[in-house]
Amino acid sequence: MPIIDSTMTQLILWAALGYLMGSIPFGMVTAKVMGLGNLRNIGSGNIGATNVLRTGNKTAAALTLIFDAAKGGVAVLVARALAGEDAAQIAALAALLGHCFPVWLGFKGGKGVATFLGIWLALDWRVGVACCLTWLVAAAVWRISSLAALAAAATSTIWTLLLTGSQTLLLAGVLTLLVYWRHSANIARIKSGTEPKIGQS
């Protein structure tokens, strides 16, 4: 845990701002702007980059990935610059919650992987890069996006301990649990062998 220097009012403010940044549904916006239809009616119905890729438009999927990662990173960097490390961590958690449970979509959002990675790249680039590399290696080995995401999330606490110590360990644990919670259906399909592979409809 970081040293708490901000007031409760300030932390609540940064939580609110982080949530609002995280709740922007870039996948749905990108799909609409590029004429790909309503993501809720495509593939899994998820608003993230993996489901955007199921439209067959790789550019739209890449833009969704970048924007979803960026909103988490921006929330962290702005909070850190204007308030401090405690506010940055609060904003990080709130941004992931905003992506997963956006008020604009009836609290039915994405699974948070890109936002999770963007958050870590902003909190500590070394941990962020390690998580991204973990995702890439796991995806190359198993060819299952959700399994790669779970591997990246699970190892984030290890990378945090190895690279930064304990200052962000609690946050790492909470973010990991949130990612796993959002992937509960995927975990069930992985266990049953029915989880789609990357590129598969």
UniProtKB/TrEMBL annotation:
Database matches in InterPro entries: G3P_acylTferase_PlsY
Pfam families documented for this protein: G3P_acyltransf
Entry membrane topology: Multi-pass membrane protein
GO CC annotation terms, alphabetical: plasma membrane
EC number: 2.3.1.275
Annotated pathway: Lipid metabolism; phospholipid metabolism
GO molecular function: acyl-phosphate glycerol-3-phosphate acyltransferase activity
Keywords: Acyltransferase, Cell membrane, Lipid biosynthesis, Lipid metabolism, Membrane, Phospholipid biosynthesis, Phospholipid metabolism, Transferase, Transmembrane, Transmembrane helix
UniProt main location, coarse: membrane
GO biological process: phospholipid biosynthetic process
Subcellular location field: Cell membrane
Catalytic activity: an acyl phosphate + sn-glycerol 3-phosphate = a 1-acyl-sn-glycero-3-phosphate + phosphate
Transmembrane segments annotated in the record for this chain: 12-31, 88-107, 127-152, 158-181
Known function: Catalyzes the transfer of an acyl group from acyl-phosphate (acyl-PO(4)) to glycerol-3-phosphate (G3P) to form lysophosphatidic acid (LPA). This enzyme utilizes acyl-phosphate as fatty acyl donor, but not acyl-CoA or acyl-ACP.
Subunit note: Probably interacts with PlsX.
Family per similarity comment: Belongs to the PlsY family.
HAMAP family given in the database record: PlsY (MF_01043)
Protein name, UniProt field: Glycerol-3-phosphate acyltransferase
Lineage: Bacteria, Pseudomonadati, Pseudomonadota, Alphaproteobacteria, Rhodobacterales
